[in-house]
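If it is no trouble, can you show me the amino acids of a protein and the C-alpha cells describing how it folds?
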Amino acid sequence: MTIEKALDALTPYRSEIPTEALNLIRSNWTETEARLLSVLDRGIANPLEDGQSAQFLYALYLCAEMKCEAAFERYISICRLPTLLIDVLIGDILTECLPEMLTRTCGGRIEPLKDLVEDDSVYEFARSAGLYSLHNLVVTGALAHGELGNYCLDLLAFRLRKRPCHVWDATITIAGKLRVAEALSVIEAAYQRGLADPGMQSFASVERGMAQPLSEEQLREWRGKIEIFNTENEMYFFARNWSAEEEFSREDSATLLLEAQTARRQRQQPTGSKIGRNEPCPCGSGKKYKKCCIDQPFTPKVLDTFNDAIPLNLADEWIGAGYYFLEQEWSYKALTCWYRGWQEVKNILPATIRNPGTEECDRLFPSCEIFSNWLVDYQSLLEENMTHDAVVVQNGLFFCQEVVERFSEMRCLLATNFAETTAYLLLALGKSEQAFSLLERMIEQYPDTAQGYAVLAATLSLDAQRFNLIPDIDRAQQLLQNAQQNASDCESWDISVRLEDLKGWQS
C-alpha cells in the first residue's frame, strides 16, 4: 500500500477501521504529518462543506496520538469556532477527548490554554476543555500542582466573569481534584451567588472530596487516559455506527413528501359521515374540503405527486407536508420540507408580486390558507431550532435573505421580524459583524420602532453567551435608552424591564 492509498483509505465512512493504512501513516509520519494538518485546516475553514469525509476525524485523532505539536493551534482554532460549528466538526469529542488532544500536543505551551479558559467569546465547554487539559499536565508532571491550584483560586476569586457558566463548574472540579482546600470559601460563595450548578455537584460533595486523600489508583487512571491514546480505540464508536456499504446521507427529502402524503391519506379516508367544510379533504391533498373536492359528486381521486400526468403545485405539497411533520413534532423534517417548498415557491410566484400578503399568494398555496402566515411559521421554527443543526441554520439563512429580497413591499413588522431572525442565524454561524450591521441598519431604517434596539441590546447582554460574544453591557444600556427616546412602542418590547434587568449585569 502506498502513502497516497493509505490516506485515501481514511476518507470513506466505513464500519471497518483501516488499520493497515493507519499503521503505514504512523510509520511514515514525517511524510504524512503535513497532509493530515492540511485536512484539519480544510475542515476548520469550511465546517459546513458538503461531503466532508471521515478523514478529518482520523486526522484529528492521529495528530493527537503522534503528539503533533503543529496540531495544537488547530485544536485551539476549533475551540474558538461558534458553538454550532464546533458541534458540526467534532460533536462530543469536545468533552470526551479534546482535553487529552490539547495536552498531548501543547508542547508545554500553557498560556494559550489559559487564554482559552478566560475568553468569554469562546463556547463554555471549549473553555472547560482547556482547563481540563491543564489538569492533565499536572497529572503527567509537566505543570506544577501548586501553579494550577493558584490559577484555579485566581479564576474563582477574580478572573471569571460573574455569570453562570460551565467554566465555574469545571474550575471547582479541578480545584477539588487538586485538593485546593483554601478555595473552599470562594467556592461556597460561587454556589451562594448561583454561579455554580449544584446539579453538577453540590458544595457538600466538594467539601467531602477535599477532605479525602487522592489515591494512587485514581492518579493511574487519569494518567492512563492521557498516555494510552490510540486512534483505533477512539474511532471505534464512530465506525461501528457507519454503514459498511455507503457514506452517511441525509434522509431523502422525496421520501418525506411521500411519508406525509401517505399519513394524510390514511388519516383522511372517507368514513361515510358528512365531511365538514373546514375539515381536511379526504383526497389527501392537505387542503380544506371547501377549497378542494366539495363540488365533486364522486369519491375524490387521491393525488399522486409522483405522477407527472397530473399537474400539481409542488410548492403547496411541500408546505402541507411541513405542517404535517410539525403536528408530529418532527421539527427537522418540517424544516426540510419547507426549505424544499420555498425553492418551489420561487419558481411559481410571478415576479410582479412583491408583497406576500396578497390574495394571489393565498390562492396559489391553499395548504397554508394565508401565505404570509406560513412565512412567519417557517421563520419562527427556524428561531426555535437554530442551535440544533448547522444545515438547518444555513438553509434558513438563505431563506430569510431571499424572502427579504423577493418581497420588497412586505409590511414593516414582517420585514423587521425577518431581519431579526436573519441576524440570529448569522450569529449562530459566527458572522457577528454581519449580524450587528444588519441590526444597526434596522435601527436606522425604523428608528421609531423598539425592535432593533431591543434585539441588538439582547445580543450584547442576555444572549451574548449563547452566541459566544463578549458582553457589552454599557452599549446594551445605551441602546435601550435610545429606544426610550426615539421609539413609540417601548412598552410592547418591555424596554424599561430590560433596562432594569441589566442593572445587575455590571461586573
Q: What stands out?
A: The chain has a mean pLDDT of 87. The two ends are 60 Å apart (CA to CA). DSSP finds 27 helices and no strands in the chain. Residues 331-348 form the longest helix (18 residues).
